[in-house]
């Protein structure tokens, strides 16, 4: 039997995302049990969406997908791997390097949800020609959307040349499509404008693309809503250049918007300060407040939100509610059927890819990196909000 290669996992301290480590992963290096496969993770995307996973790790159970085992025998930095630490999930591609599962063969390329690590061990179940799910005991109570893995050889939309864009944007664009669909399905809660924070982020401009194209609006309203982007001064020019927002303003310009226009707020930033400013400005004209992301992960609490004791539950206007994309997927899989859902999202993805890769003005440049130092550098840039919005990072160990 071939001795498994040493496996390592990138970890962060759950209570302080600045504290990171690269630790040995004994579970991913152990002899393979019957019914399991071992994968070498080939590449993965690292975006602000992954910072959201970390910021909401406890509340949304993101830490539960790839638990960090103790004790640790190898260390690059000085974190202690135990229940206080977690591994951030990422979307990417991996190759099967060992298989003891009938129907999954050596050398297969797999797309899906992986640990930020060198290797992963999965327990395939419900194996079909196109996909399987990980039936590991600790994942059975987690949402099935994240437990599904695609066999690339049977995926008609897969091409090696498109791997970077798929890893970077497919899961984010699915969320974008579903936010647009959720708003349209609810008649935009009576809003005439949709305000998106962190508007330069990929999930935000994917949502703006769907809104601006009216992909779902025809089902609920005869007139299009106005799409407004809220971003930093540093990213304002890039965001305006995308062409999918009707208006782009900076965070300190919220008060310049007409306060009497019924507005829905889609919060990609998670900033308590920005949320409070939006709620106080629109008050009862704010028709819905939708929490999606946490790009401003260090301002998620109400400590900067204004008056003493002013929590999200006590802000003027509607109570902020968390948007959970898998719940909308489940609803639409029933409403439209799996084939109908795939047809709609596939058509939207095709249009988005055309806009994204327009040679005259591409929205995204892929930047590749390899090794622990490259992963750490990109992670710290994302954590500090210093990454350039026009870049997408695809990494490997």
Top keywords for this entry?
Rossmann fold; Quinone Oxidoreductase, Chain A, domain 1; single chain; 2 domains; 8 helices; 397 residues; alpha/beta; nine-stranded mixed β-sheet; six-stranded parallel β-sheet
Gist of the model:
It contains eight helices and 18 strands. It has 397 residues and is of the alpha/beta class.
Report on the architecture of this protein.
- The protein is an alpha/beta fold and 397 residues long.
- The protein has two domains: 8-158 and 364-396, Alpha-Beta Complex (Quinone Oxidoreductase, Chain A, domain 1), CATH 3.90.180; 178-325, Rossmann fold (3-Layer(aba) Sandwich), CATH 3.40.50.720.
- The protein is built from eight helices and 18 strands.
- The protein has helices spanning 26-29, 48-55, 163-185, 202-213, 236-241, 272-282, 325-356, 372-384; strands at residues 8-13, 16-24, 37-46, 85-86, 89-99, 109-115, 119-122, 124-125, 131-134, 148-151, 193-197, 226-231, 247-250, 263-267, 286-291, 321-322, 365-370, 391-396.
- Strands 3, 5, 6, 7, 8, 9, 10, 17 and 18 form a nine-stranded mixed beta sheet that branches.
- The longest helix has 32 residues, at 325-356.
- The two termini are 25 Å apart.
- Residues 71-81, 217-222 and 302-310 have low confidence and may be disordered.
Q: How many strand elements?
A: 18
Task: Compute the number of structural domains.
Answer: 2
CATH architecture descriptor name of the largest domain? Alpha-Beta Complex
Detail the poorly predicted runs. 71-81, 217-222, 302-310
CATH topology of the largest domain: Quinone Oxidoreductase, Chain A, domain 1
Number of helices: 8
Helix content: 25-40%
Shape: globular
Secondary-structure-based class equals: alpha/beta
Radius of gyration: 21 Å
CATH class of the largest domain: Alpha Beta
Looking at this structure, what is the CATH superfamily of the largest domain? Medium-chain alcohol dehydrogenases, catalytic domain
**What is the terminal separation in angstroms?**
25 Å
How much beta, percentage-wise?
Answer: 15-25%
| Order of SSEs | EEHEHEEEEEEEHEHEHEEHEEHEHE
Q: Give the integer mean of the pLDDT values.
A: 87
Which assembly state applies to the chains in this document? Answer: single chain
Main beta-sheet strand count, sense and barrel state: 9 strands, mixed
């Amino acid at each position: 039997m071939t001795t498994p290669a040493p496996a390592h996992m990138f970890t962060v301290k759950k209570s302080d995302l600045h504290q990171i480590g690269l630790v040995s992963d004994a579970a991913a290096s152990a002899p393979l049990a019957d019914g399991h496969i071992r994968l070498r993770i080939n590449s993965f995307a690292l975006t602000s969406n992954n910072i959201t996973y970390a910021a909401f790790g406890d509340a949304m159970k993101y830490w539960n997908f790839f638990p960090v085992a103790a004790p640790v025998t190898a260390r690059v930095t000085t974190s202690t791997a135990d229940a206080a630490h977690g591994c951030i999930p990422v979307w990417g591609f991996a190759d099967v390097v060992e298989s003891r599962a009938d129907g999954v063969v050596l050398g297969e390329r797999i797309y899906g949800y992986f640990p930020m690590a060198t290797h992963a061990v999965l327990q395939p179940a419900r194996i079909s020609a196109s996909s399987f799910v990980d039936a590991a005991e600790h994942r059975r109570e987690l949402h099935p959307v994240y437990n599904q893995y695609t066999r690339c050889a049977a995926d008609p939309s897969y091409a090696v040349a498109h791997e970077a864009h798929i890893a970077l944007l497919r899961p984010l664009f699915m969320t974008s499509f579903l936010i647009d669909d959720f708003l349209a399905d609810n008649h935009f809660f009576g809003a005439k404008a949709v305000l998106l924070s962190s508007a330069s982020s990929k999930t935000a401009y994917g949502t703006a693309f769907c809104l601006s194209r009216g992909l779902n609006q025809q089902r609920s309203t005869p007139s299009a809503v106005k799409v407004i982007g809220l971003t930093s001064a540093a990213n304002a020019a890039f965001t305006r250049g995308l062409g999918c927002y009707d208006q782009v303003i900076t965070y300190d310009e919220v008060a310049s918007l007409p306060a009497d226009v019924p507005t829905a707020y889609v919060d990609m930033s998670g900033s308590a300060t920005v949320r409070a400013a939006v709620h106080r400005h629109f008050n009862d004209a704010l028709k819905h407040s939708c929490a999606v992301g946490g790009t401003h992960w260090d301002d998620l609490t109400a400590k900067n939100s204004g008056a003493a004791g002013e929590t999200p539950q006590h802000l003027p206007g509607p109570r902020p509610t968390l948007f959970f994309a898998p719940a909308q997927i489940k609803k639409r899989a029933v409403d439209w059927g799996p084939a109908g859902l795939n047809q709609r999202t596939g058509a939207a993805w095709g249009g988005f890819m055309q806009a994204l890769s327009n040679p005259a003005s591409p929205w995204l440049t892929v930047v590749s990196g390899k090794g622990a130092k490259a992963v750490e550098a990109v992670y710290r840039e994302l954590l500090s909000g210093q990454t350039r919005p026009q870049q997408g990072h695809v990494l490997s160990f």
